[in-house]
Structure formats: structure tokens, C-alpha cells
Design brief:
Layout lengths: L2 H8 L10 H11 L2 H6 L24 E3 L14 H5 L5 E7 L11 E9 L8 H5 L5 E3 L14 E2 L1 H4 L20 H5 L8 H10 L6 H22 L1
Helix pairs in contact: 8-9
Length: 231
């Protein structure tokens, strides 16, 4: 060891607080109660949870959700970018190929398997930032506690957004005359008659046919008016 390092090693480092002065020393015993005293005069705010639901912020990071397009096709394309972005390795994605008779999302692939392990998830939101199609978002649902670790692994059907009124359950063909780019740009605003007819033929008992047919019927006058205006 050099003489310089030996000298610094022998020096004793001491840390002392700044002197408080007369008034600081006088009020030091009760200074810690300042916050308590001021809280006496503030209104009491008590959330009656679980009898009354808590109020979360609009951008709260809660349970994940796999979103759909307006015609009911899934937005997830199975690219696995969310799984790669996850720092806790909490997401598992396995892609599948779309086929003419089984089209679940626009394009060539869809998320066949999608799992989120909530015993690992840290709710950082990096996965939703990595998603190129805005298929993955986070809801305000935070009540995810359970009794077993197995039940904390959410499968695709638990994460998939419910079908809204007018949507047609997948699988079904893409909107006629469109590509996946039209879907990404938000140009598909609902199911088409050709899609409804396809589902009627292949799944006549599908519960979403009626609402999708009503949505197509309601949208036809507006489409005709827009076409006439262009002419």
C-alpha cells in the first residue's frame, strides 16, 4: 500500500449534523409531531373497499387485455415482441398460421397461445409499449389475488377483450378488398355482409350473427350516402 493510501486509510471520517441553534433545540422534541398536528384539521378520507370500488387513474396499469378490431378479428399477430420486452419473463406467446377457413387476425399469423404469469408480472407496461398493433393494453382491473400460483397464469381466453355489440366472433375472413394495412390504419369500421354470410354458412348457431347483421344493416345507408357524395 502506498503512503498516500495509507494516510487516507488512517484518517477517521466523522459525520456530524449542523448545529440547530437555540430555537431548533427548543422545538426539536415536538418537531416530529408537526405533520400529525396539521392532519388533525384535515377532512378524513376513507375508501370503503371492498364495499365501494376504488377509483383508479385512467392510465392505471392493471390486468392485460388483448384487443379486437371493429369486425371482431384479433389484433394480436403473434410477433412475441411483448414477451421479449418483458423484464420479468412473465409473458409466453406462441404464434399460429392463419388459414382460409380459420382467420383469427389480419395477415399471416395470430397469437395461438398467450399467457401472462401474474406471479411474475411487475406491471411496468413495457409490453404494451412494444406491441406494434396496439393489441395489448392494460386495464384498471387490479383484483388478481388468488390461492394458487397456477391460477395466477392467465390464458388467452381470460385476456381476450369481450366482443362488443356489432362484432363478429372469429374466425372469419378479412373484410373484402382489404389488407392487413387497412386494419392497422383503422379503416375497417365493422363487419361486412360477406363476413356475416361466411359465418352463417360455417357456424349458423353463432350468437354474434344477429348483432353483426344489425350493424351491417345500420351502416349501409351511411355508406351509400358517402358514395353518392363522392360522385
Amino acid at each position: 500500500m502506498s503512503e498516500k493510501n495509507q494516510k487516507h486509510g488512517d484518517d477517521e471520517m466523522r459525520y456530524e449534523q449542523d448545529p440547530k441553534g437555540f430555537f431548533g433545540s427548543l422545538f426539536a422534541p415536538v418537531a416530529g409531531y408537526g405533520v400529525t398536528f396539521t392532519s388533525f384539521f384535515r377532512p378524513t378520507v376513507t375508501e370503503q373497499y371492498p364495499f365501494e370500488g376504488p377509483f383508479t387513474m385512467p392510465r392505471f396499469h392493471g390486468r392485460h387485455q388483448l384487443n379486437r378490431y371493429a369486425d371482431g378479428l384479433e389484433k394480436c399477430i403473434g410477433c412475441e415482441l411483448c414477451a421479449w420486452a418483458c423484464p420479468a419473463d412473465a409473458i409466453l406467446v406462441e404464434a399460429g398460421d392463419n388459414k382460409p377457413g380459420a382467420q383469427y387476425s389480419p395477415g399471416e399469423r395470430y397469437g395461438r397461445v398467450y399467457q401472462v404469469n401474474y406471479s411474475r408480472c411487475i406491471f411496468c407496461g413495457l409490453c404494451i409499449e412494444a406491441c406494434p398493433t396496439r393489441a395489448l393494453t392494460m386495464t384498471n382491473d387490479f383484483e388478481l389475488a388468488d390461492y394458487t400460483r397456477r391460477d395466477l397464469i392467465f390464458e388467452k381466453q381470460q385476456l381476450l377483450a369481450p366482443l362488443e355489440e356489432g362484432m363478429l366472433s372469429a374466425p372469419h375472413p378479412m373484410a373484402e378488398g382489404t389488407t392487413d394495412d387497412n386494419y392497422y390504419r383503422g379503416e375497417v369500421t365493422g363487419p361486412q355482409q360477406s363476413q356475416v354470410d361466411w359465418v352463417k354458412k360455417h357456424r349458423p348457431q353463432d350468437a354474434t350473427i344477429e348483432s353483426a347483421q344489425s350493424a351491417v344493416t345500420d351502416r349501409q345507408p351511411a355508406t351509400s350516402s358517402a358514395q353518392e357524395a363522392k360522385k
